[in-house]
Amino acid sequence: MSNKIKALTIKVHAKTELQGVQYAWDKIPQLEIFTRNIIIPEIAVEQDGGAAVNIGTLVSGIPTVFARASLFESALNNIIDQDAAASGLMLFYKSLVSEWKGFISCIALNYKDIEVNRVPLVYSDGKKINDTENVYEPTGAFGNSLFERQPLWCDQSLADNAEKVPFVDVISFKGSVVGGTSPDCFLFTAVSYNIKDRYPFINVQSGRFVDPLKSDLRPEELYKIYGYAKQILDNIQQFRQHFNNLSSDIRPSYENISACLQDWIKDMVKYQEQRNFARLDNQTPPEVGALFALPFSKLFNYSTLLFGSEGIITQESSSELSIPFDPKDLLLPDATEIAQIDFGKEGVGTRNYLSNKPILLLAAETKGQSNNYAYFALPLTPLALNVFGANLDALTGLSPNSNVRSRISALYDPNDKDGEKLIVHLRLFTDTGNEILKQVVYKVTQEAIMGKDILMWPNFISKQWNRYFLYSEIPHNDAKFQATPFIGNVNDDFFRIALDEKGIPFYLAEKGRALSIPEMKVQLHVASNNAVADNKYKYEIYESNQPFKGIKFAHAGMDCGFGIIRYKSFGDDPAFPWNLLNTTRTLSPAFLGVDFGSTNSSIAYYSDSDKMIKENLKLTNKRVSLLSTDLKNNDERPAVEDEIFFFQNDEILSNSIKSVLTIHDPRRIVNEKGSQSDFLLAQAVKGGFPCFEKNLPIDTALDNRYFLTYNRVGKAELVYNMKWSTQNIDKSYKTAYLSTLMLHVYAQLFVENHEPHTLKWSYPSSMGKDLLSEYRAIWDSLVDISPINNGVTLKTYPPSDLSDIGDVQGSTWSAGNDTGGSWGTSEEIGWGSEVETQKKEIVEIPFDTAPIRFDFKPLGNKDSLSEACAVANYLVRPNGGYSLNPGELVLCFDIGGSTTDITALCQMSGGKAMIKQNSIRFAAERMAQATRYSPNFRTVLLKMCERKGISIQGLNKGENKFSENTAPYYFEQVLDRLEHTDFNTFYRLVAAECQEMMSVNLYITGLIMFYAGQLVHKLRTEIVRSEDAPPAVKNTPPKIRIAFAGKGARIFDWFNAVDPSAANTYYTQMFIRGIGGEAVAKKTIMPVSQNPLKIIDINSQKADNYTDVKYEVSKGLAIPTDNTKILVPANKQAIEILGEDHFCIVMPNGEFKYLESTNSITPEMLEHIGDHFINYPPQGSQPCPRFMDFADLFYKVASAMFGLKMSSADFMAGFHDMNIENYIKGIPEFIEAKKRKLDEQKKFDYVAPVIILEGMKFFEKHLLKGIKIQ
After folding, report:
1. Burial (0-12, 13-18, 19+ Cβ within 10 Å), 777
2. Are residues 482 and 561 in contact, defined by beta-carbon separation less than 8 angstroms?
3. Per-residue pLDDT tens digits for 1003-1042
4. With bands split at pLDDT 50, 70 and 90, how would you rate the model's confidence at 804?
5. Any idea what the Cα angle at residue 623 is, between residues 617 and 624, rounded to 5°?
6. Which of 302, 511, 959, 1042 could lock onto 285 through a cystine, CB 3.0 to 4.6 A?
7. Is the preceding omega at residue 295 within 30 degrees of 0, hence cis?
8. DSSP state of 981
9. pLDDT for 554-612, tens place per residue?
């Protein structure tokens, strides 16, 4: 019997069956062939070769922890032909190879969901097996089980003297472990894992990896898998070399794996051909990045280091400006929720809607809704934003003709079962034609940004400019959405985003505070904080000395994309800001003249380069709306919050600037340095903004405040009529108004290639020196406003009338006087003594005696000027001014809101001279004041609005807010909406529907003309007496030319529009009555013409279209006095008249010295009114004959032509109630002058003509009541 037997325990195919010798061990030759042919029981399999049961659970019982890896190695070594028939173990191996391919595909397609963690297979105490206390600790035990193969599992790249320990890289997919790395098979899967999500590389029944070629792949998915498989195949040889130093018995060989990959790649080509996909040719691997460490990084890592400059992508750096980048770092992580921006119906239905927007966002087509679009923050990283730079327009498809071919596109799916999705595709093209594809699916924020705006000012950026402002209705610290601006680098040739050392943009604010950035100046002026948490309108205002580049959007504190500001370098689209960084402007010197008025302000400038006043200076809109539009029609709706709390968008001529300041809620103002509130509120922007708006939702009004009502912000407060206020808070507001207004001016002049070098400002002649000194400090503070880099320091000139500022009565320092005014010179001062002896003051008030000595000198060019003086300079300007012949006297009334400034000009020895300047507190605001009492005025306004199609909130739209407090406001609003040709229509409508207002107009204008007559008589008298007047002037009675200036000058048009002839007669007769009657007039003046007879010329030189209205002062300030060579008196004493009879000086001896109405009036007289200067009509005489003379003519004309309802008895009652002494003592300016003398020993400096003071009292106490009579 033969001793050869068959094996009993292992069954193999017959052709490989081995013969053994009984009771002897034999080596099996060709063991691999033997094991390959082992017959195992059939296992139920699926169509794809996968087992219906988890064979891995059986294999795990094999006594080695690396059995799983060994199985994959065996599978790859044994399954050479995927198409060959297989059964049993070979069928299982085949399923493992399919799983191996699925694992590779998972990394290729979803590398962002992959996490790799290296686990060293050593004991945690660092000891060897013989020394450790826990031999069975898994990691160390697993390493021990590698035995002689341990070096293969170590990192061979370590230095020879470094300890090499075995390791395994554990791979997780979406947080769950799915496999690991092996030097034998590259990858192996875990025994037990189950992926529920649907992917082309997952078997939906088993939840395990599977060859994706058995699934339906999209072309881009196939391209990525193909590229990745090629990447692994191409790097196998490099990977193998990693183990070259190992002994040959453990050194791996990867011929079978290479063959497997090659076959798989061929299968992909067949797959592509069957489905008619684009050819698989040089497909770029997916940007897996640095997921794996050595040595597996050689196989599985791939990142394309490319270089980008303004969207041109190269594989090598083309210049030092090129930015190196990895394509995978261009899109935000897929865990980012992207913010949606809702532009309403217009945005949804308009293709290329963003092409007209100054902010770069991402447009997406809406899935399932043709021609519907949605808009999102850019899902690009700051790196990508800098790589594409100025060609982001091309990337987003807004510049299709650009030579930049790369594109980002998106599909918005609002109906995805897992929430709204944004599928973003990024296609990169290199200069060699290579295409790199990136796709990320993002979630979308549950809410959209809607109805919010972000505005910036100015609408240009330049290396010569350093003050940029941004207004945001999406505060950086708001609860829902946040928007944080960041800046660009002006020193970068492409104005890229300025980044910190970590590559992060300089975001300008955090937690309610501006960030401190080296070498940059950033401020958060207005913030949204807890103090205003109850207010549903949120806004904040930034300032930066570097231009803004873009906005980072966030939702609930999580970043959700970017918006980039689109600067233009050419074109004229006002919706876009201009990039002037590469342009250096030559800025010509500009000499500014600024007239700050109670109601309106005016600005003009003289160009040093053009040697002329620049006409029609217009403050144009320099705001840029990023998320909405700034084309707001205030004829249809009132101004909204962003129009009043930020720089103005109404374009306005610089002679029509309202002296109105919108102030912020003080709780919103950021106080970085703990400053005092008055200092804080005096700052530009923080203190508020000038308001140019013509339609405001006014609720109520006070004498110097308007209160607006909004649905969102609630109450808003506007300050007006600031000029004469002495309140500390109003000083701050005046400073803030002028400071912010100057920013408007600087910006406008910058675009007109000018820069302010000097500034002259104006003031009324009647302004007290304390207030004048306050204004000097305000104007001097404006030198810090300049936004021009390396510009000149603005020179503000002091007022010419402050030469004796601080002058006090008596001598302070002279010794030995006996006036009691010196320190320590007399015991009679008696401080602290029990008995204080006072000498009774002896008052001796001077009155007209000697002639006035003018002592003329040229008007200096380095002084700010009184309004009267500025007007004089304007009136004698070259090209358009008065010629001023020797036989002429020009009297100009600059009628403002609060004051009327008077200038008198004539020819004197040496040339044109100003012989008088003063101001009276009797002006156009009296008309506005009267509207409070007029019962019919609202009717006139409504009819005028109807005729012109004007809509004004609170007047003819919305809730009726017209009241006696708001009437002046609505009066101004309507007048501001009228064209020049509309005014006469308005005046005639007033005459027809509201005759009481015409009566008021006749009163104001008539009194000014009456006063003009009185002044002419006084001036002529003084000229004749003066030694400064040449004989030709003394001997020739002058022709009188009366001019009107200022916006208030229109009050002289009212009567003229109704009946020009009657108006001329009325004003001429008032003038003659003022001069003293016809007989006096004939001796004092000459008619302007004899045939036809024209006694005086009334404003004949006015321009028909009033182009220079309110410019007279500012232009007079701006025009260099070297051009006009006007003379002014060195003696600044005003020639002011008493204007009323029955006033007398009580002489020291008790004698009453009566003065004529033509006598001068001085501050000394008014200081002692009621004591040493009294009104004492002789027995049986009228109480105020000069005023009564004026009132007589007024009453006759007003009652006859305009139905004035006051009776003659009403007038007589007013005359007898005049009591002018007590009235004068109650005037605020009188009280202030008294207080200054008492507290500061300064001269009493209040003076005014009594005739005007009488007119003021009668107006306030009687006429306003009289016009209410129906």
Report:
1. exposed
2. no
3. 999 999 999 999 999 999 999 998 888 888 899 999 999 9
4. very low
5. 140
6. 302
7. yes
8. G
9. 999 999 999 999 999 987 889 999 999 999 999 999 999 999 999 999 999 999 999 99
Helix or strand run (H / E) with residue 536: none
Alpha carbon distance 1018, 1029 (integer Å):
15
Tokens of 351: 């293709």
The rounded distance, in Å, linking the Cα atoms of 143 and 163 is 14
| Assigned token pair, 444 | 């979308």
406-422 mean pLDDT? 94
Q: Which residue has the tokens 């020879």?
A: 160
Q: What share of the chain is helix, strand, coil (3-state, %, to 5)?
A: 30, 25, 45
Per-residue buried b or exposed e for 632-655, using 16+ beta carbons within 10 Å of the residue's own CB: bebeeebbbbbbbbbbbbbebbbb
Among 414, 322, 431, which residue's Cα sits nearest to residue 366? 414
> What element of type H or E holds 207?
none
Cα dist from 417 to 413, 421, 441, 448, whole Å: 10, 9, 14, 19
CA–CA dist 5, 18 (Å, integer): 9
Q: Which of 100, 86, 70 lies closest to 36 in space, CA to CA? A: 86
- Match 């809704």 to its residue by tokens: 369
Cα distance between residue 271 and residue 221, in whole Å: 12
DSSP strand pairing (1093-1094 vs 558-565): unpaired
Q: Which residue intervals of 951-1059 are DSSP H helices?
A: 967-977, 983-993, 995-1025, 1031-1035, 1054-1058
Check if the beta carbon of residue 626 is closer than 8 Å to that of residue 764: no
Nearest to 697 by CA among 686, 706, 685: 706
To which H or E segment does residue 208 belong? none
The residues near 650 (Cβ < 8 Å, ≥ 6 apart) are: 621, 634, 643, 692, 693, 694
Buried b (16+ CB within 10 A) or exposed e, 202-222: bbeebebbbbbbbbebeebbb
Pair of tokens at residue 619 = 């403050």
**What does the chain come to in residues?**
1270
Smallest CA-to-CA distance from 1104 within 925, 980, 931 is with 980
Q: Which of 900, 876, 850, 875 is nearest to 1021 (CA)?
A: 850
Does pTM surpass 0.85? no
Q: What is d(CA 10, CA 682) in angstroms, rounded to the nearest whole number?
A: 99
The span from the CA of 267 to the CA of 73, in Å, is 21
φ, ψ of residue 522 to 5 degrees: the values are -130, 135
Three-state SS sequence of 355-398: HHCCEECEEEEECCEEEEEEEECECECHHHHHHHHHHHHHHCCC
Q: Could you give the count of Cα atoms lying within 13 Å of 144 in the half-sphere of its Cβ?
A: 14
